[in-house]
Amino acid sequence: MSQEHFKFESETKYGSWTKICDDMMDSEAWQALNRSQRCLYLEMKYKFRANWGGSKSNRKSISDNSRDISFTHADALKIYSDMRTFRTDIDKLIDCGFVDCISSGKITKECNIYGFTERWKKYSDPDYSVPPYVIRPSLTEKEKQARKKAAERNRQRRMTNPQKQTILP
To answer: Which one of 21, 127, 131, 135 is least enclosed by Cβ atoms within 10 Å?
Structure first.
């Protein structure tokens, strides 16, 4: 009698699963990720669904959502305590070539849409770089500098007008 599953696996006969291949885990791109970035990738990969067609010997994916993975603010807060870490981790996944941001919901206040890529296979190439068309969901350097300047101005105002500060008991 053959065992159809290991004891540590689900006993569901047709249950879904999240696939991470050995070549991906052995790649330099995967090794460049920390634990939280790998966890984020697995959370995103968990949302991947494919519709299969064809005979058992010739199965093909008819359609999938590999370029339509939504990740909401609420999804991020389930695994992150603050959004800065999430943005850092998603940027690293983009840098390493695992995902792309297909559409940013920053302006419209909607969730970002991500898609899986195969750029991670070229990560170890000496001339690897993220293509310029790739959208960044986090703040650009110009936006970061503007926020820094605004924070510095506010700090200077508080220093010059200490009587206007509210002191909590």
So the answer is: 127
Please give the Cα distance from 13 to 165 (Å, whole number).
64
Per-residue pLDDT of the chain (169 residues), as tens digits, is 445 556 666 666 666 778 889 999 999 999 999 999 999 999 999 988 877 666 666 666 667 778 888 888 889 999 999 888 999 999 999 999 999 988 887 778 888 899 999 999 999 988 888 888 787 766 566 666 766 676 677 667 656 765 555 554 4
Q: Are 137 and 87 in contact (CB under 8 A)?
A: yes
* Whether this model's pTM surpasses 0.90: no
Residue among 98, 77, 92, 74 nearest 137 (CA): 92
